[in-house]
Amino acid sequence: MARKKKEEIIEDAKIEENASKIKQDANVPEFYTLRIGETLKDVATKFGLNETQLKELNGEVIGTNQVRLK
């Protein structure tokens, strides 16, 4: 009986984690316009993203103030 409860708790945690990820993805736009002085690190923090992934998506951000987030 205890084993079944533990499995249910683990499954519930997975469902909540997936729901949280879906909710976060829904709040992240495809593109974002940088403000003066704003860095990719600032944007990553703002949207709960990984700075490394943003760099991979955008390459060198030179001469533009728009970055891809997805």
Structural key phrases:
single chain, 70 residues, Membrane-bound Lytic Murein Transglycosylase D, Chain A, two-stranded antiparallel ribbon, 3 helices, 2 strands, elongated
Number of alpha- plus pi-helical segments: 3
Reported by name, the CATH topology is: Membrane-bound Lytic Murein Transglycosylase D, Chain A
Indicate the low-confidence ranges by residue numbers: none
Computed Rg = 18 Å
| CATH top level class name | Alpha Beta
Between the first and last Cα atoms, what is the distance in angstroms?
Answer: 43 Å
What is the percent of helical residues? Answer: 55-70%
User: Which sheet architecture does the biggest sheet show?
Assistant: 2 strands, antiparallel
- SSE order, one letter for each helix or strand: HEHHE
Structural class: mainly alpha
What general outline do the C-alpha atoms trace? elongated
Mean pLDDT: 74
What is the second-level CATH architecture?
Answer: Roll
- Per DSSP E runs of 2 or more residues, the count of β-strands stands at 2
Classify the beta-strand content into a percent band. Answer: 5-15%
How many structural domains in the coordinates? 1
The largest beta-sheet arranges its strands as 1-2
Structural summary, described in words:
The chain is mainly α. The chain has a single domain, classed as Roll (Membrane-bound Lytic Murein Transglycosylase D, Chain A), CATH 3.10.350. 59% of the residues lie in helices and 9% in strands. The protein has three helices and two strands. It has helices at residues 2-26, 40-47, 51-58, and strands at residues 31-33, 66-68. The protein has a two-stranded antiparallel sheet. It is elongated and about 55 Å long. The termini are far apart. The mean pLDDT is 74.
